[in-house]
Amino acid sequence: MEIRKSNPEDIPAIVDLLRLSLGESLLPKSIELWNWKHIENPFGPSPVLLATENEQIIGVRSFLRWDFANLETTIKACRAVDTAVHPDFQGKGVFTKLTLGLIDEIRNEGLDTIFNTPNEKSTPGYIKLGWEKAGKLPLFLGFRLATNSNSRIPDSDWNQIRNLIEKLEFSTDRSTDFSTQLKPGFLSWRYENCPLFPYYFLSDGRSFLLVFRIKEGKWGNEFRICDFYTLEEFGHSSEQELQKMLQEAILASGCRMISYSGLKSNHSLGMKFLPKLSLGPLVTLRQIQHGFVPKEHDWAWSIGDLEVF
Fold first, then answer.
1. Mean pLDDT of 54-64
2. What is the pLDDT of residues 81-97, one digit of tens each?
3. CA torsion sign, 259 to 296 to 67 to 60?
4. Which residues neighbour 106 within 8 Å (Cβ) at sequence distance 6 or greater?
5. Are strands 48-53 and 56-69 parallel, antiparallel or unpaired?
């Protein structure tokens, strides 16, 4: 077995291996999706290692680059995503070799930490490889009894808020907690151009941007608030305008459930949520550099950072 870095010519075979090993599940595998995640990412192309046997790709391990920033500094991170081993080679240590090899690569590059949201089945394997549980994101839920199942939110025109997006991505107004660094191009990449499903926004065009999507479920649709950004101009009148927009959008969506999950403050959303529940995704962290202990830092993850990868 040989371990090597991937190259662009490998992408079709990588996608085929992901389909074979993982199936389509809720996120259909495609070259378009791979390129969006691993090539077009504004934080940079993903480091990817492959395991091959007789020139056949039998394993893939990729880390998605993601930067976090607060008032003072930037954390260079990766998210562990898109790993697959050919069914004929599972249980032979391929996953471990690829993972440890990729950790060495990004350590030499100077990255600080790895984060991800493993499921119950994969969590024990990550713990054995040095990941630590950081805890589950808090989840706030609201419910509506009267709904209109035929309702549909009109598509958002992202061109209407280009100026606001530019201001948000160049803003230096940050908190003391570490949140996703809004690099130029990030918001369009993450939400407008996501190939998985449409995202919508609410905004006054100058002081706030709320991003949401409609998540289909067997008990009815969910109005999922993914991210909420503000500029210093955001004040009482802006908050009132946001709350009015939000209530109108929820009513128009016909959704039975409204959700907000994350470590960012939700005080401005004006929602009558149920008490905070520990039902959000489990976040795990992996130390890479000896002088950087990720669990000692204050994080401000949003569900938008974590939901689709």
1. 96
2. 999 999 999 999 999 99
3. negative
4. 47, 63, 78, 114, 288
5. antiparallel
Domains and CATH numbers, the chain: 2-135+281-306 (3.40.630.30), 139-269 (3.40.630)
Contact between residue 105 and residue 256 where contact means Cβ atoms under 8 Å apart: no
Q: What are phi and psi of 107, to 5 degrees?
A: -65, -45
pLDDT of 26 > 70? The answer is no
Characterise 106 by phi-psi region: left (phi > 0), alpha (psi -120 to 50), beta (else).
alpha
User: What count of residues does the chain have?
Assistant: 309
Mean pLDDT, rounded, for 212-238: 91
State the DSSP H helix or E strand holding residue 103, giving kind and residue range, or none if neither: helix 94-109
16: enclosing H helix or E strand? helix 11-22
Rounded-to-integer distance, Cα 277 and Cα 136, Å: 9
The SS3 call for residue 102 is: helix
Alpha-carbon gap, residue 157 to 107, rounded angstroms? 41
- Position 299: which residue type? W
Cα separation, 45 vs 37, in Å, equals 8
CA-to-CA dists, residue 186 to 67, 117, 258, angstroms: 11, 21, 25
Q: Which residues does 206 contact at the CB level (< 8 Å), separation at least 6?
A: 164, 231, 233
Identify the pLDDT of residue 176: 87
Summary count for the chain: helices (H), strands (E): 8, 13
SS3 268: helix
Strand intervals (E) in the chain: 2-5, 48-53, 56-69, 74-85, 113-116, 131-136, 139-143, 179-180, 200-203, 208-215, 222-230, 257-261, 282-287
pLDDT digit string (tens) for 227-237?
A: 999 999 999 99
Structure tokens at 24: 């389509």
